[in-house]
Amino acid sequence: MDTTGVFRYQRPAGKEPHCGDGETEALMAAAALEPVLLRWRHRCSEGLIDDSGKIRNVFRRPEGVGDNVGQLIEELNRIPEAVA
User: Fold this and answer.
1) H-assigned helices in the chain
2) What is the pLDDT of residue 39?
């Protein structure tokens, strides 16, 4: 059986976030994929990653074009330095 769904967490009313001053921003910056993708894009298939470090055609892809996210993960997994 295949299932799909969306999970969304909502903080209870009146609860403060657990992160302190600037911690949320620091975590968001550390989780950014664009710098990593830009660094390794020359080792991936041509046109897979755009000039800003984003994966092309993630939400809309031309007819007959495969899954770019899956292809990128597969290609990056072959580069130990990129995985690290």
Assistant:
1) 23-30, 34-40, 68-76, 80-83
2) 92
- Cα angle value 58/2/57 (rounded, 5°): 5
Residue 22 C-alpha from the chain's centroid: 22
* 41 contacts: CB under 8 Å, gap ≥ 6: 48, 49, 53
Domain boundaries in the chain?
23-83
Q: List pLDDT tens digits, range 17-33.
A: 677 778 888 888 888 88
Instruction: Say what the pLDDT of residue 17 is.
Output: 66
Give the residues of the chain that fall short of pLDDT 70: 1-6, 17, 60-66
**What is the length of the chain?**
84
HSE toward the beta carbon, residue 59, CA cutoff 13 A:
1
Phi, psi of 6 (to 5 degrees): -125, 130
Query: Which of the 8 DSSP states describes residue 67?
Result: -
